[in-house]
Amino acid sequence: MNQKNMNRFLGVFAVGVLVALTGVPAFGGQTPVQKEKKEHVHQYIVSSVEKIKGETVILKTNSGNRTLSVKDFEGEQISDVHEGDRFLLRVEEGNQIIDIDRIIGPGVEFHPEAHQKLKGNLVDYDREYKIITLKMANGAANNFKLKEVAATKMNQVKLGAAIEIEIDEENGFVNDFLVD
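^ thats the sequence. predicted structure below, dont judge the formating
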């Protein structure tokens, strides 16, 4: 190979390496990141009530203890919490608990698909009352109450954004959402 051909080869090779390292799509294709579909990334953690002190509930999990309040359980329509009771915690990407389900019996009988998912465009967000208004595909505007964790995340969403919400079947509140 002569010097001129060697220089061409090295130039083409260097551009190829640069394209591969920067993730620039070659020939109009998509990079793997562009192909990924946004999805909820939740963990499911089995816990048991280790101790109750006044309004504080200490849950024991495999990864350590978590502290909740009696009001957290009441917000999930769960009353009458006792030491030894078992619960399934659903934790979102930011390590916040977005759902609590009581475990009855020896096995975990929980089906995440039970949470209804709806898509719409954000028309309004009342930060004081934690209520959003979505314009649905059929043109109807519907209001939804947000859980505290979802309300905190909603502060970053702009009006008009297309979002998919996930509704807790036990209390009708929005557990979590994705911005399209």
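Strands lie at 43-53, 56-61, 64-69, 86-91, 97-103, 116-126, 131-135, 141-145, 162-167, 174-179.
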